[in-house]
Amino acid sequence: MNTGFSPLRLVFGNHSPSMRIALISTALTIVCLIWIYPFLWMVSTSLKSNMEMFANPSLLPQEFAWDNYRRAWVEANMGRYFFNTLIVTAGSVILVTASTAMLGYVLGRYNFPGRTAFFVGFVATVFIPQGFTIIPVFELLSMMGLSANLFGLTLATSGHAMVVFVVLFAGYFSQLPKELEEAARVEGVSFFKIFWYVMLPLARPMVVTVVIMQVLHAWNDFLLPLVVTLANPAIRTLSVGIYAFKGEQSIDWTGMSAAATISIVPVVILFVLLQRYFINGLAGAIKG
Q1: Looking at the structure, do residues 141 and 229 belong to the same domain, yes or no?
Q2: Does residue 188 fall inside a structural domain?
Q3: What's the CA gap between 12 and 20, in Å, rounded?
Q4: In angstroms, rounded to a whole number, what is the distance separating the alpha carbons of residues 242 and 222?
Q5: Above 80 in pLDDT, residue 221?
Q6: How does pLDDT run across 269-279, given as a tens digit for each residue?
Q7: Less Cβ crowding at N or C end of the chain, within 10 Å?
Q8: Region for 205 from its dihedrals, namely left if φ exceeds 0, alpha if ψ lies in -120 to 50, beta otherwise
């Protein structure tokens, strides 16, 4: 007879398996509702007028104010900011995925003098707060003449999330069979072709994981785009554009909610479509 300690038995008692599953499902449903309530409130507020938002606490609007989305997209210039965010996100995803995959491959598959010291020093930079690096990054962009354009913002955005992705790629590549590389070398395949045609396709779940995480990082980043776009408001991203709904005397809550909904929906759709690869990639990196 199994007399070991069970956390589920401690929480839910000695119920039958079917009853235990029902209790767990109910508890998880309540937690999920609490978790997604802010998102539901945001969508609900985006469909109300400013007066109804304060008068009607219900999530269901009395009248759907679709004009809030028109105001956010056209009058608040969110359409331009959406395009800017798309350019910055796509560019940073390409740069970050390519560079971190190559560096992670070398660190995960090869031993060379100073590898451990380099890896430790590289990982240590994770603990440096973003606020400490913004001024040096901005000064560097200014010296290169890139402080007021989308290319400079893309480069700056690409540099903030690389460390974690390199560690993930290194962990994933380290658990792949060495026989794959040895067989390719016997056939005379070069180093870069082994990486590109043999190892990288096997790391597809990890690539998708990094793509999703970098999209979330670049799409939602606020502090760095705020500093970089001060000199040129035309290159603002969505996160900075949403902040513009906050005035000195009042806040346009309905317009801000509509803009935030426009900003969030694309990344939610992306995650839903690619969540299987995301989970597999993280599992492979942790296993490695």
Answers
A1: yes
A2: yes
A3: 7
A4: 10
A5: yes
A6: 887 887 776 66
A7: N
A8: alpha
Cβ atoms within 10 Å, residue 154: 20
Residue 250 has a CB neighbour count (10 Å cut-off) of: 9
**Is the same domain home to 189 and 261?**
yes
Average pLDDT over residues 6-27: 69
In this structure, is residue 156 part of a structural domain? yes
Helix runs in the chain, H state only: 7-12, 17-46, 50-55, 67-70, 78-109, 115-124, 130-143, 150-158, 162-174, 179-186, 191-193, 200-202, 204-220, 223-228, 238-243, 253-287
Compute the average pLDDT of residues 183-202.
Answer: 85
> Residue 85: which residues within 8 A CB-CB, separation 6 or more?
218, 219, 237, 238, 239, 263
Domain that holds residue 133: 70-287
How many domains does the chain divide into? 2
Residue 75 falls inside a structural domain: yes
Mean of pLDDT values over 245-250: 70
pLDDT score for 1: 46
Q: Say whether pTM exceeds 0.85.
A: no
